[in-house]
Amino acid sequence: MAIDQTLIERITAEVLAKMQGPAASAPRDGVFATVDEAVAAARTAQKQLAALSIEQREKLITAMREAARENARLLAEMAVEESGMGNVQDKVIKNKLTADKTPGTEDLVTHAWSGDHGLTLVEMGPYGVIGSITPTTNPAATVICNGIGMIAAGNAVFFSPHPKARNTSLKTIRLLNDAIVKAGGPPNLLTSLANPTIEAANEMMKHPKINMLVATGGPGVVKTVLSSGKKAIGAGAGNPPAVVDETADIEKAARDIVSGASFDNNLPCIAEKEVIAVGSIADKLIAYMQKYGAYLISGRQVDDLIQIIMTAQEEKIAPGCTDKPKKVYGINKDYVGKDAAFILGKLGINAPAGTKLIICETGPDHPFVVEELMMPVLPVVQVKDIDAAIDLAVKVEHGNRHTAIMHSKNVDHLTRLAKAIETTIFVKNAPSYAGIGVGGEGYATFTIAGPTGEGLTAPRSFTRQRRCTLVDAFSIV
Ligand code: NAD
């Protein structure tokens, strides 16, 4: 009989808690048996954090960064092993990126007005305890990034990780808590459950002592937090188009697109999900993409691949309607984040060494274009001119307002797409990941809040603005 390790751990934690009473059973590593216990511990920790100076808080952040950096490989290996998605070397980059480039307390900036009537300040204060829901696709990187950002802002956090990334998420929380305590901070600034479930995430969202919610995930969970009645940040799905026009450096565009789209097997929400190539350069672009590690499939192979990596259902037709039902496609989650060679193997193709990405030419309405695949499978759509390219890019981005990429030397073309598509991130002439600080300027985050408008979240996103006014004094000019 198979042993359910998770169930055993949960029952053991609950029995121990009952036997030993509340004080003796209180964990110090942030991992609790119930939502109530985790939230209570996080509240206590947040009050202790509030009593520390900003300088002391920054010391805790430094310790978190070091722990994340030291354990970047371990956490990457755990994430790939547990979720079966992505690859270790790219997850190491993600973990180190968040350790190094997530902003700290320097992001909290005070605004002041002074004049005849004295001095007024607006300072950025914490919310209290934040409920952070994290995805399977970046389990450790999201906990590191949100953990640093939320604590820098003065909060404690209750994490609801995806059950499929439980071990990696809890390990990350434990390592960061340990680093915080060793640096003189309170225990349990980051909390979670020994057995995280969707039901527990919903219980957490309704908990009166959770002050703010942050959902990093697909459209379902973003909608759920936005319907919670609490202040919520939604960092949702993307389907980033990469547009290439006739003025681009085609070889560089091809290399950049292959690098961005194959990074961590296409799991990042910002990764190129379809290419839109202006007619005259499309063949050259595809040839260069092949040179840099893309494997081109065509005809029957594309049809077979749809059967493998997608699910299809017949559209529901209203009674009496004579229209032929259309097929509604979804993604087959078994292939999310898998290696290109593994997917090609399912087509009976032995991938040449160095294959990072599968590419194919498709029409503009193909399911590979329309759906957010999160697999190293990249459709290339040829269009007649830049007008058609912009129209299609806007259409397939689905109004997510997440990320778009463009390769062009024509400033007018670049500006026109940027204005039309209104994405939170617009990357010009680089791989998509330059938009979160890999080979591009600017800080990093793995919580990109398009739907609620915070953009690339940073400590300031997790603060409340508080005004303090002193009348007729403290203006010294
Ligand atoms: P997912 O939506 O399946 O799960 C995300 C998290 O939400 C998990 O912790 C899951 O347990 C939880 N969840 C899902 N439905 C829920 C519900 N009804 N109630 C409570 N909790 C619920 O997503 P995933 O597969 O883990 O991650 C991939 C998705 O996340 C993609 O769509 C990707 O674009 C998006 N994503 C966005 C960002 C961003 O910054 N905008 C970052 C990473 C991933």
UniProtKB/TrEMBL annotation:
Membrane spanning stretches: none
Recorded GO MF terms: acetaldehyde dehydrogenase (acetylating) activity
Highest rank taxon of the organism: Bacteria
InterPro entries to which the protein is assigned, alphabetical: Acetald_propionald_DH-rel (IPR012408), Ald_DH/histidinol_DH (IPR016161), Ald_DH_C (IPR016163), Ald_DH_N (IPR016162), Aldehyde_DH_dom (IPR015590)
Domain Aldehyde dehydrogenase: 32-432
NCBIfam families, A to Z: PRK15398.1 (NF011927)
Protein name: Propionaldehyde dehydrogenase
